[in-house]
Write a structure and sequence with these properties.
heterodimer; A: 204 residues; alpha/beta; 25% helix; 31% strand; B: 269 residues; TIM Barrel; 8-stranded parallel barrel; histidine biosynthesis (chain A); cytoplasm (chain A); imidazoleglycerol-phosphate synthase activity (chain A)
């Protein structure tokens, strides 16, 4: 089957850059929120920038969630959440009040404790690979990815965490369960290592 | 470990990449796409594009080449973003929420505001609420006057009532996600950064600060990391002049054990 990537469109700012990098890797990439595009895709990407609550609201309103869940949980299509697109997988988020997330991965999203370091956590930082996973293949030792965020996903079960990053505290930067992947950083902005990660994803 | 960032600044004037000296002398260096391609290949950590056009005219004078002429900053943003697999900040002449929206939609990751923040500080709050603080950079131009770093408005021409560190705190409170601090005195001088200015601003706020103005040698970047808390250094002229500049700067810093990404090249397709 030909790879066909659908970037889920709910009005998030970074769709264009995910699209730009993805189209350097595969020929069939669509930006869409139409149920038929979600069904015909082989790989699904949920991008995200901005606040948790606002993003969830748009996701509820614009994405065909029933179809999406069926494709991910029944048909087991590889799914990748990027930045806020990973955070919304949590049960709850605590950015500007408490908000309900998709609840696909147990845990909550809360403010990053950066101590005396500047917040947002902005720039290139290392991902320490805690466990092997299909998305973390072919990397140099502890690759640097581009981060920009002030909140982190506190994942409940350690088994879901495959990569961590240190910024005053250690937080989950890569999560993996079955066919669901999430990254706190922006692979679409991470040059060579970002491209490798997205290539790994489409080879799943 | 979190790395310090090296950020080339590309100055655009009427659609051309220019070199600036003291905020008033300009020299044409070429078209914006060639420069972004090079800076991508040298694996810059980020890019800042500042549109310093005064009259609103864009002309790439490229009728002779197959690339179409670009008269519109939004088209320039779109083309530049396609080429760069790294975060790009666009600044210059941003006055409304719609100006920001259009730039983000065309592929900008962050936008930088200067004049409008001084005219109407609540604009920072509105922009941060709408798009997230992480994409709102406030750019500050400062000049040493009677022993104080005074914030200058209108392209560095008009003094304001604020000191740089004071204004930095204000914009942080209004919701800025990052600050770009530029020394007018050091602009184009190649004599090194204005360290006390960078210290005063970086110590005043908790958001990331990018220091700019005066880079003339790779050691100057090291000095900033040794002596200030800034998160990133930016420069325009030095990165435009030397072949493989960003790569060489990184290599120097990496070899001297500064926390920067390992020097590598990135193939741009």
């Amino acid at each position: 089957m030909t790879t066909n990537v659908c970037i889920l469109d709910y009005g998030s700012g970074n769709v264009r850059s995910v699209y730009n990098m993805m189209s350097q890797i595969v020929s069939q990439v669509t930006i869409s929120n139409a149920a038929q595009d979600v069904r015909s895709a082989t790989h699904l990407i949920l991008p995200g920038v901005g606040a948790f609550g606002a993003s969830m609201e748009k996701i509820q309103k614009k994405l065909p969630l029933k179809v999406l869940k069926e494709e991910i949980f029944t048909k087991k299509k590889p799914f990748l959440g990027i930045c806020v697109g990973m955070q919304v997988l949590a049960e709850t988020g605590h950015e500007f009040g408490e908000h309900k997330g998709l609840g696909w991965i147990e845990g909550t999203v809360r403010k990053l404790n950066s101590g005396n370091l500047p917040l947002p956590h902005m720039g290139w930082n290392e991902v320490t690979i805690q466990k092997q996973s299909p998305i973390l293949k072919r990397f140099p030792h502890n690759p640097d990815f581009y981060f920009v965020h002030s909140y982190v996903f506190e994942v409940k079960h350690d088994k879901d965490i495959v990569g961590t990053t240190l910024y005053h505290e250690n937080f989950c930067s890569v999560l993996f369960r079955g066919n669901i992947f999430g990254v706190q950083f922006h692979p679409e902005k991470s040059q060579k290592v970002g491209k490798i990660l997205l290539e790994n994803f489409i080879h799943i | 470990m979190k790395k310090k960032r090296l950020i080339p600044i590309v100055l655009l004037r009427n659609g051309w990449v220019v070199q600036s000296k003291g905020f008033h002398e300009y020299k044409n260096l070429g078209n914006p796409f060639m420069s972004v391609k090079r800076l991508s290949e040298w694996a810059s950590d980020e890019l800042i594009y500042l549109d310093i056009t005064r009259d609103g005219e864009y002309d790439l004078r490229r009728d002779d080449l197959r690339d179409p002429n670009r008269h519109d900053i939004l088209e320039i943003i779109e083309d530049v973003s396609k080429m760069a697999c790294m975060p790009i900040t666009f600044g210059g002449r941003i006055r409304t929420i719609q100006d920001i929206e259009k730039r983000l939609f065309r592929g900008a990751d962050k936008i930088s505001i200067n004049t409008q923040a001084l005219r109407e500080p609540s604009f920072i709050t509105n922009a941060a609420k709408e798009f997230g603080a992480q994409c709102i950079v406030v750019s500050i131009d400062a000049k040493l006057e009677n022993g104080k770093y005074i914030v200058m408005a209108e392209g560095g021409k008009v003094p304001t009532k604020y000191e740089a560190s004071e204004w930095a705190k204000i914009v942080e409170n209004y919701g800025a996600g990052e600050i770009l601090i530029n020394s007018i005195d050091r602009d184009g001088k190649k004599s090194g950064f204005e360290i006390p200015l960078l210290c005063s601003v970086a110590d005043a706020v908790h958001i990331p600060v990018i220091g700019c103005g005066g880079a003339g040698a790779w050691e100057h970047f090291g000095e900033v990391f040794d002596e200030t808390r800034v998160d990133a250094v930016a420069a325009a002229n030095i990165f435009q002049h030397v072949d493989q500049s960003v790569h060489l700067a990184k290599k120097y810093l990496y070899d001297h054990n500064y926390p920067v990404r390992p020097p590598e090249f990135f193939e741009v397709s």
